[in-house]
Amino acid sequence: MIDRLIKKIEETQAPIVVGLDPRLNLIPKHIKEEAYEIHGKTPKAAGEIFYRFNKEIIDTIYDLVPAIKPQVAMYEQYGPEGMEAYIKTIDYAKEKGLIVIGDIKRSDIASTAEAYSQGHIGRVEIEEESYTVFNQDAITLNPYLGVDSIEPYIQNCKTYDKGLFILVKTSNPNSGEFQDLDVGGEKLYERVGRSVNQWGAQLIGKKGYSQVGAVVGATHPEQAADLRKLMPRSYFLVPGYGAQGATAEDLKGYFNQDGLGAIINSSRGIIAAYRNEKYQKQFTEKEFALSSREAVIDMKKDLQRIR
Ligand SMILES: O=c1ccn([C@@H]2O[C@H](COP(=O)(O)O)[C@@H](O)[C@H]2O)c(=O)[nH]1
Predict the structure, then answer these.
(1) What is the CATH number of the domain that holds 262?
(2) CB within 8 A of 7, min separation 6: which ones?
(3) Which residues form the signal peptide (predicted)?
(4) How many CB atoms lie within 10 A of CB 143?
(5) Of 25, 50, 74, which Cα lies nearest the Cα of 58?
(6) Does residue 115 line the site of ligand 1, with CB under 6 A?
(7) DSSP per-residue string spanning 175-203
């Protein structure tokens, strides 16, 4: 996965992942009205709305970026209809050649992690048949339960060429509450970073990076520079740019000298760009996807300044 991701980053010259986090209040009226007319104001309509919205965005940005990151919470809240939209979004993005990072943040004891791993990055078996359910290339995980909770995923990374991004230093304002605690002379996030680096050492790709990467929030540049040194071969998945306030200037220390090592996420900043005055001057609400395209182009230019 990591070599495929790096190849696409090099081809597009865009270390960008577009977060597909649809919310009904961020979706253009015409899409909602058409779905409500057919399905009523139901979870079925929500699923249809999300898929149509995502598809139009994917169609408009797939040539510019290497990857998308659907956030499972947005879909899961609507039950099976929401999850159907999640799966359809993944499959469509893959058809368009995009790498898909499922933001699922799972964590559980090994025997349960095994089931998550099979469903999300492996294959599930039903008697003598086996199926791919969620065809993601990589997923996000929470490391709180320790290495035995991560091992079932590492096995599937080897078998199926998949990737992991493990929470190391998250972007939220209270991330320091536990992650910055001193644990024997270092911060907890540093301790986790060392472990992630070690877990990934067995999965280094041709380009020198591991299939096991880290989530490092764009809102903590000092900690990121520290982690960059501790975990030179881990790819960083970096949320927090745009809507959460981080800027390109904050991101310099997330990349290695080779210009690689980080992929920056923007979700609301791209999918809701049509509500931004800057793009409203060029495009109508019905042309929301063109606003998203323009926002990706602007983000790419912004990141080029610091790489
Ligand atoms: O530390 C983290 C880990 C994950 N996220 C996720 O990234 C996106 C950010 O969305 P924006 O709209 O660009 O703020 C969202 O899916 C989060 O769940 C994060 O923000 N921070």
Answers:
(1) 3.20.20.70
(2) none
(3) none
(4) 20
(5) 50
(6) no
(7) THHHHT-BSSSSBHHHHHHHHHHHHHGGG
Chain position carrying tokens 């070599």 = 3
Range of the domain at 53: 2-304
Q: CA 65 to CA 120: how far, in whole Å?
A: 23
Note the pLDDT tens digit of each residue in 200-248. Answer: 999 999 999 999 999 999 999 999 999 999 999 999 999 999 999 999 9
Q: How many domains does the chain have?
A: 1
Q: Which of 213, 219, 268 is nearest to 99 (CA)?
A: 213
**Which position among 8, 88, 105, 252 bears the catalytic label?**
105
pLDDT tens per residue, range 113-141? 999 999 999 999 999 999 999 999 999 99
Residue 70 Cβ < 6 Å to ligand 1: no
Token pair belonging to 124:
């599930």
**Alpha carbon distance 22, 192 (integer Å):** 31
Is there a catalytic annotation at residue 105?
yes
What is the residue with the minimal CA distance to atom 6 of ligand 1?
A: 239
Task: Choose one of 57, 103, 236 to mutate for the ligand 1 pocket test, by most ligand atoms within 8 angstroms of C-beta.
Answer: 103
- d(C-alpha 106, C-alpha 115), whole Å: 11
